[in-house]
Amino acid sequence: MKIKYSVNLDAVFSGVDPVTAIEGVKAAGYDCFEFMRYFGKDLQAMKSKADALGVICVSFSGKPKPINLTDPAAQNDFIEVLKGAVEATKIFGNKRLVVTAGDDTGARRDYQHKALVNALKKAVPIAAENNITLMLEPLNGRVNHIGTYLEYSDEGFEIINEVGSANVRLLYDIYHQQITEGDVLRRILANIKLIGHIHTAGSYGRKELDLGELDYRRIIEKIIEAGYDGYIGFEYWPAADNLTGLKRMRECMPR
Hints:
Blueprint: E1 4-8, H1 9-12, H2 18-27, E2 32-37, H3 43-53, E3 56-61, H4 75-92, E4 96-99, H5 109-129, E5 133-136, H6 153-163, E6 168-173, H7 174-180, H8 184-190, E7 195-200, H9 216-225, E8 231-234, H10 242-252
Helix pairs in contact: 2-3, 4-5, 5-6
């Protein structure tokens, strides 16, 4: 099975115009890309460049403004924002949208957990109607996202099961979860059918995959052996030149 890698434009090509970044993805030998936020970008120009080069967009973030899904009062805003993001997917034809829980509001954990589940349940009809998979991403609150509510993949998988829809899956970010809870391979393999997308970066440092403490080659091989057929996204900030790093990943990661 060919492993499907995706390059995150906003990370690997941070500060680079997205159209130029798409050219870089192709120049490095990849045919899939993703990005963090769709607002503020010339999506039509990106689509035109992608089509010309034969590369595809596989996902982006569906929240153009901070929304705490842990707050019941914010759920209507979330649905309206989601509708806008779904319209944006029609430009690229991608069927994946990244969703984050937002901040810990300070309310009881069980209260926030329930609100998050309910928000996702309300989103399911929109996702199903448009054949979209919403990918809930836990983030680390120790280094990069202090104050975030959803840190642990264990709770993330509980939420996915409680929502109970094939249109809602977990985005397992190996970098974040190595910081938050570790034991990443066991958790991934035990819940492989609930994972819709995977992000990677060297931990620590969030640089290329071979510059951290994890054996990413073995991790990726085991994930593929377990039957995962989704995308594996490179969401790292290069230690040096972005093209050099991407080309090195082609040589040192499984293919």
